Structure formats: structure tokens, C-alpha cells
Request: fold
Amino acid sequence: MFDFLNSFFNNNDNNDNNDNNDNRTNNNDNNGRMNMKKTSFWGDRAQYSKDIITEQVYDIATNLFRKNGVNFDEENADWVVIPKYKLPKNWHHIKKTTDLLILFPTLYPKVPPVGFYLKDDIPFSPDGHLFNEAYHEADRNILKYGWKWYCVYISPGSWRPNKIRKQYDWKYGDNIWTYLSLIREALSTNK
Reply:
């Protein structure tokens, strides 16, 4: 069902992504804080990042999206698609369900996702935050494959993942659960 995603993700041409998706090694500003303007996607992900993302995705698949499950990039942990995501009531005059895509930055969990993506058959959003373009260093190339970008921006310093010392430590800081709560809150507003 999501072969087009695998095809895009596995054949991603780095020359096509130089504008905002390059693999950078130093994402810290002079004060040691994460620099959100250097978010990268599709780079070489550290094994601990893959492990944390995989653990988090399996957790939401088991506990939150049991009915429809999720589609997940198990090889690189770059993305998760939530099929038939139930939109809040304020969207029902537009659409009741849609596929929802989250792209994980290469430095996740240190760096949060930048917005999320909904299928491009949705003409507009109640709050005007759904775009045919991507901003804030979000990945633009995925838009060519039937997605629109929904703007959810986390200010630098607001995303606070827990330090990982043992399995499941990620549950005590910001993680995919808190990000999905943010998505739900953003989609539920009309402003």
C-alpha cells in the first residue's frame, strides 16, 4: 500500500535534497543548544536513534493505533504513516480520516519533527495551517508524492527529550506520544 513511500525513501537522491535535507554533523549553536535551522532528514541515523524511534513507534502502534496499525520504515526509522487517522470534529466538513505522515529528523530524539504531512486530497484546513509548501526546514521533497505539510513548529528549547540511560527512559521526556498530542491539539483548533 505504501510502496511509493518506500520507493521514494530508498531511492532518495541526495542531489535533489541539497536545499534543506543535507546531513550535517554539528547542529549546535555557540551555546551548545540545538539549532533548529539545521534540521536534516534522510542522513545516516545513529543506532540509538533508530532504536528509540522503533521503540516509540511500536508503542503507539500497540497502544494507540491498534485498529489500523501504522506503516513504519523499519530499515532506517525515517518515517511513520498512520493510515486512516481520525481527524477532529472541526475537520468533518472537509474529511473525517486521512493518512498522517511523520518524518523523523536524523538527530531525533534530540531534534523534534518539523510539522507533519496529510494526504494532498484535503483541499484546506479549518485553521489555514495546511500548505502545498514546507517551511521551518521541513522536508519539501515528500510533497511531490501526494502529501501536504501541516505547520506545527516547536520553538528551540521547548522540546525536552529525556536522557536515555536504559530502555524506555524516553517515556519521561518529550517523545512521539507528546508529539501526537501536539498534533491532535493543533488539528482541533480553528485559529
